[in-house]
Amino acid sequence: MQRALKEVEERKKRGTDRNDFLEKFFRLQREKPDQVTDTAVISMAAANITAGSDTTAISLRSIIYHLLRNPQHLETLRQEIDTARRGNRLSDPVTMEEAERMPFLQACIMEGLRIHPSIGGLLPRDVPRGGCVVAGRFIPEGHVVGTSAWVINRNTSIYGHDAAEFNPERWIKGNKAEMQRYFLTFGGANRMCFGKNIAFMEMTKMVPTFLRHFDVQLTYPERPLKEKNFFFVIQEGLIVNLRERGDEQSNGGAEKEAY
């Protein structure tokens, strides 16, 4: 936030002919000074600096950690990856098109995102003109309402009685359309994260490529993962042993510890 504040103040003093995001914010402020305050400009600039810096890493840690905690799902995913490799349907690195044809992989990614959203706070929304009704209560215009993806993503009426558990099968056997409708990890509607597709591409390519080349085990399986919520819900203590897999997906190779 301090970096964004400094950049906004310096840009206002010196001016610029650059056509970047910050200049677009200033242009919007000149057009609507009553609505776009200096605080709003600083907030939007800070969001541009921090967006995507931790979220994808948090999501990848969630996917890998929960797979390691649920070896039956890890084995199913590894079989899907190895079957695709033996059928010459897998490049190295794995392409987006190839990964999208792997249903259990897609289910694991969605489940990892569902059970551990990267954003821990509320997703605020301004109540529009005329107000609105939320859960049977009228909310006047101008108020701010919000909900947390951590609450919605674990709602048992949407995701089933085991919503607090990591179960990729729900995305294959359950009502996928209904679950996606309420899936809030990336926000929703026209306020959805505009980096969603890039994040999905990174995870969809990285997870199968990583598991294709390495056998992974928790170094300290008796230790629970620590989580700290600083707006981003960051995990700490995910330490694993990696063993490189051979050309025929054997368990040979040197073992290494990774953090």
Automatic annotation (TrEMBL):
Binding-site positions, heme: C193
Stored Gene3D superfamilies: Cytochrome P450 (1.10.630.10)
Keyword Cell membrane: no
GO MF entries: heme binding; iron ion binding; monooxygenase activity; oxidoreductase activity, acting on paired donors, with incorporation or reduction of molecular oxygen
Top-rank taxon, per record: Eukaryota
Protein family membership: Belongs to the cytochrome P450 family.
Designated name of the protein: Cytochrome P450 family protein
Organism of provenance: Aureobasidium pullulans (Black yeast)
